[in-house]
Amino acid sequence: MHHSRRTFLSGIAGFVALAIGTASVAPQVRAAPAATAETVLKEKGVARETFSVHSSDGTMLVGEAQGDPAAPEILFIHGLRQSRLSWEKQFDDPALKGFRIVSFDLRGHGDSDKPASPDAYSDADNWADDVAAVIRAAKLRRPVLVGWSLGGYVAGAYLRKYGGSDIAGVNLVDAVTKLSADLLTGEAAEFTRTTTSHDLAERTAATADFLAACFHRLPSDEEMQRMLVVNGMTARVVNEGFVATKTTDLEPAFKTYDGPILLTHGVHDRLVRVAMSERIKAIHPNSRLSLFSESGHSPFYEEPVRYGRELAEFVTVANR
């Protein structure tokens, strides 16, 4: 193991164990207004609207919105065990200041509700309804959907149920669009088992290792500590339910989508093979594959300047 990674993991493992142990008991759906909003002033003086909304099954989702409501829109959908905080670099990116940008915590993640039943995560329509609820709560007219990792599956679930007539474009970032052993790595398959282990020690170590596997070059220790807290908040049942889904292939939803698709993929991804993105490119005529040579599973975080520039260009063209 690399020395810096070993030092970091040994120093934080005990804290993560506490976080994961707390998260393994999923709370019940809380009573809340159908949709609420408040304005939060961030450190850099940029106002964000924090909102919550109930999905079709009562699950409450929490999100943030920033920017001119009349501007072209981007809806960011994060990956497994992550949160809306994954997109902080994009919210602060000068290249994206001219857009209305929205992110939210997926069910089972972050501040959103964490249903205790695996069925809440195995049904692709639940993920689709979540996106529809956020679009409604944020009053989005025709957003570009950005789906990272699991977020790509969620975006596909939305297209499968609701179609793409109200979606300006799709950016798939190291996205999972088909649950197939030849498109996911062996390491990803092993994490499916270890990060849902009922052995707390194994689950703790696997959660830290999973987060490290999301990067070609590790972020700073301070950044990793914050990310590990978020990873530990994710309910174990999320992954248990998701891998039991009967909807394993969302390629048809992307194939029939009429809008443009930008495929962003880190060449050093240890979890999702580049072949996953290449398949979408092969079946969708209005798609483009952009490979990030210095990135692993998280090119938007590892090469944020280039990513922001390419996304801004894509959203601008998609809205013409």
From TrEMBL:
Domain of life: Bacteria
Annotated SUPFAM superfamilies: alpha/beta-Hydrolases
Regions crossing the membrane: none
Record domain AB hydrolase-1: where: 74-304
Signal peptide annotation: 1-31
InterPro entries assigned to the protein according to its UniProt record, in alphabetical order: AB_hydrolase_1, AB_hydrolase_fold, AB_hydrolase_sf, TAT_signal
Name of the protein in its database record: Alpha/beta hydrolase
Native source organism of the sequence: Paramesorhizobium deserti
